[in-house]
Write a structure and sequence with these properties.
Length: 340
């Protein structure tokens, strides 16, 4: 087993971006001292701001600037310092800090690509305030972590997958209006998505021959063309072609009966055709403990399954379960990744 780590370190090093400073991300990061981890966790953020938030929420965690050559005792959080652009207050968004949030992502991406970090875990960001802060300076608006990571690692296609409650649910399309979904499910896009999903289930999850349950797009998976032809014209031909190569693909299956225990037990992952087809079931079963994983990247990235929760920021009442699950999964994925 080979894990990337900082020089001299015995454990893999993970980067944790603290996310939107007005949200719950920073205080969730403070809670990593509640557990012992088989990895070295480095929080990316403004260290003085993090100390102020610790005082606000009554955290006794000690913070120290990260030095890869120096080990720290238990109960100390290592912080890779990046200064805020503007003072941050819990629950109050400030567009001036939009670029700061992206700098944290850039630092984590660079560290993962160089091998400094074994993986990155992301706390939630606020898309709207980042876009407002960037304004006219950026030709492309910020549409989310997934798209940003793809662009900044030169990855032409990535796949969003959520993990929780014993399920892995990947998406053929992500943040699209429902009216735009059918046109986005082309043979090429679906094939590329299935290849990425299959490859990363092997590479990161240790599944030698993953079984993938594929949902249909239409009610009853089109019912033989009576409720839509996408299954006949696009989905079935792609599945047959990939099955001929040896992939274990089941479907297309009606989404209303796919998520029953008997069917789920026959697969290692589900591919849903659109966001609200697959995620409501998983989030109902696991919200607060689910993990968002970006597949297809040259790096490992996991994330919490919730937003910035501005109404809870600064209260110390935010649940750290999803962050802890994201860290655990990132460590597991890094351990499963083959050498080289």
């Amino acid at each position: 087993m080979s894990l990337h780590s900082a020089p001299g370190a015995r454990r893999p090093v993970l980067a944790i971006t603290s996310g939107e400073p007005a949200g719950v991300g920073p205080e969730l990061c403070l809670r990593i001292v509640e557990r012992e981890w088989p990895a070295r966790l480095v929080v990316l953020g403004d260290i003085e701001f993090m100390r102020a938030r610790a005082l606000q929420v009554g955290s006794a965690a000690q913070l120290r600037r990260w030095d890869p050559a120096v080990d720290v005792p238990a109960g100390v959080i290592e912080v890779c310092h990046a200064p805020l652009a503007s003072p941050a207050l819990a629950g109050r968004l400030d567009p001036a800090n939009g670029a700061y949030v992206l700098r944290l992502l850039d630092r984590a991406i660079a560290g993962c690509l160089s091998g400094e970090f074994a993986a990155m875990v992301t706390a939630p960001v606020h898309k709207g305030v980042i876009c407002e802060g960037l304004g006219a300076r950026e030709a492309m608006p910020f549409t989310g972590h997934t798209e940003y990571l793809a662009e900044h690692t030169g990855t032409p296609r990535v796949v969003m997958m959520l993990v929780g409650a014993g399920m892995r649910v990947a998406l053929a399309t992500t943040h699209l209006p429902l009216s735009a979904v059918p046109a986005a499910i082309t043979a090429q896009a679906l094939e590329e998505t299935l290849r990425i999903l299959h490859a990363d289930l092997v590479r990161h999850f240790g599944l030698a021959a993953p079984r993938i349950l594929v949902a249909g797009l239409n009610p009853h998976a089109g019912e033989g063309g009576h409720m839509g032809r996408e299954e006949i014209d696009v989905i079935i031909p792609v599945l047959e072609r990939l099955r001929a190569e040896g992939m274990a693909l089941v479907g297309p299956l009606p989404a209303d009966t796919l998520f029953v225990p008997h069917t789920l037990a026959q697969g290692d992952a589900v591919l849903a055709m659109y966001h609200d087809q697959g995620l409501p079931v998983l989030k109902y079963a696991s919200f607060g403990g689910g993990v968002n994983v970006t597949l297809g990247l040259p790096i490992i990235r996991t994330s919490v399954d919730h937003g910035t929760a501005l109404d809870l920021a600064g209260s110390g009442r935010a649940d750290a379960g999803s962050l802890f699950a994201a860290i655990e999964l990132a460590i597991s994925m890094a351990a499963a990744r083959p050498a080289g």
